[in-house]
Amino acid sequence: MIQSMTGYGKSVLQLPTKKVTIEIKSLNSKNLDLNVRIPSYYKEKELEVRKKIAKGLVRGKVDFSIYVEMTADETSTTINKGVVKEYMQQLKNVLFVGSQDDVELLKMAVRMPDALKTEREELNEDEWNQIEANISTALKEIIQYRTDEAASLEIDFKERIANIKTALEEVKKLDEERIEHVKARLEKALSEIEVEVDKNRFEQELIYYLEKLDINEEKVRLANHLEYFLQELGSDTSNGKKLGFIVQEIGREINTTGSKANYAPIQKLVIQMKDELEKIKEQILNVL
Question: What InterPro entries has UniProt attached to this entry (predicted)?
C-alpha cells in the first residue's frame, strides 16, 4: 500500500508543571530532510528522536517540534540580588545626587548582564518516557494521515492508467488501418509520377519502410509497463521512486509510439495518453 509524503501529527501531554505539545509535519522530498526543534534541556535526546522519526517516516521534508508551556506558578528564572544591588550602588556613584531614584536605578540594574539567572532544568527520565510515548502517538497519527492521503492518490492513479489502457486498445485497432493507409499513400504517390515500378522491388521496399514504422514492440512494452505499475501500486510496501521509474518507461514507449506512428488518429490518442501520464507524474512525486 502506498503512502503520501504529506502528513501532520500532533500530541499534547499535560504534566504537573508544564504542557508539552509535540507536532510533526511533512512534505515531499527526494530524501529525508529532517528539522528538529526541541527545548535545550531535551537536547541530549535529539539523536534518539531523529532515529525514531527516520525509521517511522523514511522520506520527506519533516519538521518536528516540541513546545513546552509552563503551567505552574514557579519559575526557573530568579533575580541575582547581589549583582543587582552592586549595579544600583555603582549607578548611584555616577549619577548626580539630586536625580537619584531607586525605582529608576532598579529598572536600569535589571537590564545589566547577569542581573537575572536561569537555573538549567535537568532532564527527568520519567518525564521523558512520557514524552517519548507521545512522540510515538504523533508518529502513528502522521503515518495514518499519510496512508489516508495516499488512498485518494491510488484511486486517481488507477483511473489514469485505465484511461491510458483504453487509448492503447484504440491504438491497436487503428494500427492495421494505419498500415493500409501507408500502402495506399505510397501507391498513390507512385502512380502520380507515372513511372513503371517493379512489383517485387516495391514490395521489398514497402516491407522495409513498414518495419521502420512498426509499433508492435512499443505496444507490448507499454502494456507490460502499465500492468507492472498497477502491480507495484498494490504491493505491501510504498516505493514512490520505483513507481517514478516505471512512469518514465511508460512515457518513453508513448513517445516512441507517437514518433513512429506517422498517422494522425493514432497521434491524437498518443496526446491523450501523454496528458494522463503528466497528471500521474505530478502526483507520483508525493508518494513515499
Answer: YicC-like_C, YicC-like_N, YicC/YloC-like
Output the average pLDDT for the chain.
84
Measure the CA–CA gap between 131 and 22, rounded to whole angstroms. Answer: 8
Rg (CA), the chain: 35
The answer on pLDDT for 120 being more than 60 is: no
User: CB neighbours (10 Å) of residue 4?
Assistant: 25
pLDDT tier, 263 (very low <50, low <70, confident <90, very high otherwise): confident
In the numeric block, which cell numbers belong to residue 100?
537619584
Q: Report the candidate in 272, 254, 280, 262 with the shortest Cα–Cα distance to residue 183.
A: 262
Rounded CA separation 186/184 (Å): 6
Q: What is the pLDDT of residues 159-202, one digit of tens each?
A: 999 999 999 999 988 887 877 776 666 666 666 666 666 666 66
110 burial type by CB count under 10 A (0-12 exposed, 13-18 middle, 19+ buried):
middle
More confident residue, 105 or 97: 105
Taking each helix axis from N to C terminus, what angle separates 240-261 and 125-192, rounded to the nearest 10 degrees? 10
Rounded to 5 degrees, φ, ψ at 228 are -65, -40
User: Residue 277 CB: number of other CB atoms within 10 A?
Assistant: 21
The answer to whether the beta carbons of residues 37 and 64 sit under 8 Å apart is yes
DSSP states of 102-135 as a string?
A: HHHHHHHHTTSTTSEEEPPPPPPHHHHHHHHHHH
CA–CA gap between residue 24 and residue 135 (Å, rounded):
9
Name the nearest CA neighbour of 112 among 134, 88, 148, 131: 88
Residue 108 near residue 147, CB atoms below 8 Å: no
Distance CA 123, CA 107 (A): 34
